[in-house]
Amino acid sequence: MRTLTEPAAPWPHGTGERHLSRTEAPSAVADMLGLRIGARVHCERVELLDPDGRTSHLLVRYTSRLRPVPGAHALSDLSGRAAVAGEAGMLGVATGPMLLVVPVVRYSRDGRPAAVDELLLPADRWRVRLT
Questions:
Q1: How far apart are CA 95 and CA 92, in angstroms?
Q2: Residue 30, domain extent
Q3: Is the pTM of this model over 0.85?
Q4: 124 lies in a domain?
Q5: What's the pLDDT tens digit per position in 39-92?
Q6: How many CB atoms within 10 Å of residue 67?
Q7: What is the C-alpha separation between 91 and 102, in angstroms, rounded?
Q8: How far apart are CA 17 and CA 46, in angstroms?
C-alpha cells in the first residue's frame, strides 16, 4: 500500500501512454474551472509509472484556454468511484474496482482556474493522507 501526501507535486518516476482529446468537461470539472455545463476542454490522460515500469496511477488533466503556472494550485474534495473501461485498461485492472479521485485545481498567472488535474488511484493500492 502506498501513501499519497503531496498530490500537486511532480511525479518522480516515468510516464507511459498519453491520450489527448477535446471533450465536454464533466460537471464537477466545469464547476471548478468556472465554465458553463457542456463547455469543451482539452483532456490529457497520462499513465504514471512506478520505478519498475508498472502503472501506478493515472493523471487526467482538463485544461481551459488559460495557462496554469507552476505552484499555483489548490486541492478540491476527494471522492471515489468505479473505474470505467478506458481507465481500467490503462491501470491493468478489471472494470469496476474503486478509484480514489484526488482533484487539484491549477491557476493562471492572474489567479483564475486554468486546469483541473484528477489523480485516479486504485483504492486497493493507495491511501491518501493530507496534512
A1: 9
A2: 12-57+65-73+91-102
A3: yes
A4: no
A5: 999 999 999 999 998 899 999 999 998 888 888 888 888 899 999 888 888 888
A6: 12
A7: 16
A8: 6
